[in-house]
Design a protein that fits this description.
TIM Barrel; 8 helices; Ribul_P_3_epim; globular; 8-stranded parallel β-sheet; Aldolase_TIM; 227 residues; binds D-xylitol-5-phosphate; binds zinc ion; alpha/beta; D-ribulose-phosphate 3-epimerase activity
Length: 227
């Protein structure tokens, strides 16, 4: 089943618990952590993730856009995140870090910026529970989807299937009604949507509609149901 993860980057940060409640049908809540160094924007850190984890029953999908994830990522697991994504461009030892995240009890995920190729990381894929392909340059919500990323999504799906891995393939950035079908058709199965969900009049309905679009496109592409 296609998973839709609304990004609270597009929510009202003064009302995070209510905003989490507004998307209760979501599979995961996507939490963008930015440190003003890895990306030119600053959002939130461990204490807010801790509070949010207590405030909602929706599991947290923490996307760390920070330097030194080797040092900080384990703290997000301890704060209550169910999935922690680090950027490979920032990680000193991605294998060790993925193993540490898993050992602490969360799903381990690795993200690639648009200019980072997947091919050098083929051998690392079994260490991961999810691979995130950025479809915008990380840092801000509401940017235009980069359709030049579609071939990378497709090649990644082929690698996952070639190795028979149970690895989720997430896309993040500009995912909306106009772009989600192309992502699903290329092989993505976890979809982050910020403005497309929180900018909608009815966020819960926007999630349902996006999921339906993704599932139809996935079925048509013949990737089948993986989870
Ligand atoms: C961007 C963030 C995204 C962002 C997506 O750096 O990683 O998660 O919230 O927002 P939209 O869906 O509006 O592009
Ligand atoms: Zn994100």
């Amino acid at each position: 089943m296609a998973q839709i993860n609304p990004s609270i980057l597009s929510a009202d940060f003064a009302r995070l618990a209510e905003e989490a409640e507004a998307v209760r049908g979501a599979d995961w809540l996507h939490v963008d952590v930015m440190d003003n160094h890895f990306v030119p924007n600053l959002t939130l850190g461990v204490p807010i993730v801790e509070s949010l984890a207590r405030a909602t029953s929706t599991p947290l999908d923490c996307h760390l856009m920070i330097e030194q994830p080797d040092r900080w990522a384990p703290q997000y697991v301890e704060a209550g995140a169910g999935s922690v994504t680090f950027h490979v461009e920032a990680a000193a030892a991605p294998v060790r870090l993925a193993r540490e995240i898993r050992a602490k009890g969360a799903r381990a995920s690795m993200a690639l910026k648009p200019a980072t190729p997947i091919e050098p990381y083929e051998d690392l894929l079994p260490e991961l529970d999810m691979l995130l392909i950025m479809t915008v340059e990380p840092g801000f919500g509401g940017q235009a989807f980069l359709d030049i990323m579609l071939p990378k999504i497709r090649r990644t799906r082929q690698l996952i299937d070639k190795h028979g891995l149970d690895l989720w393939l997430q896309v993040d950035g500009g995912v909306a009604p106009a772009t989600i079908e192309a992502c699903a058709e290329a092989g993505a199965d976890v979809f982050v949507a910020g403005s497309a969900v929180y900018g909608a009049a009815d966020p819960a309905e926007a999630i349902r509609a996006l999921r339906a679009q993704a599932e139809t496109a996935t079925a048509a592409a013949g990737w089948g149901c993986r989870h």
